[in-house]
Structures are given as structure tokens and as C-alpha cells.
UniProtKB/TrEMBL annotation:
<dbReference type="InterPro" id="IPR013766">
    <property type="entry name" value="Thioredoxin_domain"/>
</dbReference>
<keyword id="KW-0560">Oxidoreductase</keyword>
<protein>
    <submittedName>
        <fullName>DsbA family protein</fullName>
    </submittedName>
</protein>
<keyword id="KW-0676">Redox-active center</keyword>
<dbReference type="InterPro" id="IPR036249">
    <property type="entry name" value="Thioredoxin-like_sf"/>
</dbReference>
<comment type="similarity">
    <text>Belongs to the thioredoxin family. DsbA subfamily.</text>
</comment>
<dbReference type="Pfam" id="PF13462">
    <property type="entry name" value="Thioredoxin_4"/>
</dbReference>
<feature type="domain" description="Thioredoxin">
    <location>
        <begin position="38"/>
        <end position="177"/>
    </location>
</feature>
<keyword id="KW-0732">Signal</keyword>
<dbReference type="InterPro" id="IPR012336">
    <property type="entry name" value="Thioredoxin-like_fold"/>
</dbReference>
<keyword id="KW-1015">Disulfide bond</keyword>
């Protein structure tokens, strides 16, 4: 009789083991998927003195590491940023900042210096200028030179609120904002930025900057 009772008990134990293993496999799979779409960082980038849009008191900080010469950054600016601005920046949930990356050489540096000059002169003019500079990026042959002093001044002359174009030209001629651009490059190195755009939400790096669903989840988790 004692041996006859072991069968059901062993079966129940075996079933429990199988169930536990299945649960563990599901959890590991989910953790693996989460690791693939985000990367937790030890800290968030310091956005002191960076261009910031939205409520400075927002709990969620989103940082874009971008390059005005980069076509993917233009695509992100066209496709993702407008939704982010409407849903979260304008509603006071997110503060958004832009950090310059110089992956495309002299033109990247020139665009970055121009942006820093506009920001230091009139922060309200920065975001319209920022948007217009991306919009000026050619859709065909974007590798051809296009970020030039003349092009920057042409764009600046059309921005509202108005930009002091003479001051901007002087800053570009003297590379007056190169130290600010240099501080951005320190952040690029510190946070091992290898692609543009790179999007960081508080201290979490989004692996695919165009994954808006994951971006929204990170925002909601950070509130």
C-alpha cells in the first residue's frame, strides 16, 4: 500500500517542478526582452546649462544626444518628437534637453556652435532654430556639405522670436561657444554614446530611439 501511494505524490511533485521551471523560463525570457530594449545606467546625464524644453520641475527628464548632420536625427525629429512634445512636454510631464554629438565632423561642430550661441542669447529662440536646422537637412545626398555659416544665418534670419544675427555670426567667426560644445562631448564620452539619436529617460537608455511604446512606458514608470 505504501508503494502505491508514492506514484501520485511523485507525479504531483514532478508537476510542480515543471510548473516552476516554466514560470522561471517565462520570467527569464521577459527579463531578456527588457534588457534588449533598454539599458539601465548608473546615473543620468547632467543637463545643467543644457537647452531644456518643458517644465523644469518635471520628474521625467528625456535627453536626446543628436547631430544636426544626422539623417536619423532628422527622422526622429519629424516622427517621434512631435508626439512626445504634444503628449508629455507641453503637458508638463517631461523636461526635454538636447546634447550635441559631433559624429559628422566640421559641419556637426558648426551646427552645434550655432545652437549653443542661439541658446545663450535667447532660449525662446533656440527650439524654433533647432527645428528649422533639422528641416533644412537635404533629403537627397545629405552627406554633401550643407551646414555652412551662410545657411545658418539664412535660417536664423527667419526665426521668431528674432535672433541677433550679427551676434550669431560673430560667435561663429570666433568659435565663442566651442567650450559649451566641448562639455557636450564630455557627456558623449562619459555615457558611451555610439549612435545618434540616443535617447535617455532619466537614467535608462532606450536601445531603439524610434520605439515610442517603450519610451511612453519609461515616462509613465518615471512619474
Amino acid at each position: 500500500m505504501a508503494q502505491a501511494k508514492k506514484g501520485p505524490k511523485n507525479l504531483v511533485l514532478f508537476t510542480l517542478v515543471v510548473v516552476v521551471l516554466c514560470v522561471l523560463l517565462v520570467m527569464l525570457n521577459q527579463a531578456s526582452k527588457k534588457a534588449e530594449v533598454t539599458e539601465s545606467l548608473a546615473s543620468a546625464p547632467d543637463i545643467a546649462n543644457q537647452p531644456v524644453e518643458g517644465s523644469v520641475d518635471a520628474k521625467v527628464a528625456i535627453m536626446e544626444f543628436g547631430d544636426y548632420k544626422c539623417p536619423s536625427c532628422k527622422a526622429w525629429s519629424d516622427q517621434i518628437y512631435p508626439k512626445l512634445k504634444k503628449d508629455y512636454i507641453d503637458t508638463g510631464i517631461v523636461k526635454f534637453s538636447y546634447i550635441n554629438v559631433l559624429f559628422h565632423g566640421e559641419e556637426s561642430q558648426l551646427g552645434a556652435m550655432a545652437g549653443e550661441s542661439v541658446w545663450s542669447e535667447n532660449p525662446e529662440s533656440f527650439w524654433p532654430f533647432h527645428k528649422a536646422l533639422f528641416q533644412a537637412q537635404p533629403t537627397d545626398n545629405h552627406d554633401a556639405p550643407w551646414i555652412t555659416p551662410d545657411k545658418i544665418l539664412e535660417i536664423a534670419n527667419k526665426i521668431e522670436p528674432p535672433i541677433d544675427v550679427a551676434k550669431l555670426q560673430q560667435d561663429l567667426d570666433m568659435q565663442a561657444t566651442l567650450p559649451q560644445v566641448g562639455r557636450d562631448q564630455e557627456l558623449v564620452q562619459d555615457f558611451q554614446i555610439e549612435q545618434t539619436p540616443t535617447i535617455i529617460v532619466n537614467n535608462v537608455k532606450l536601445q531603439n530611439p524610434f520605439d515610442y511604446d517603450t519610451l511612453v512606458k519609461l515616462i509613465e514608470d518615471g512619474q
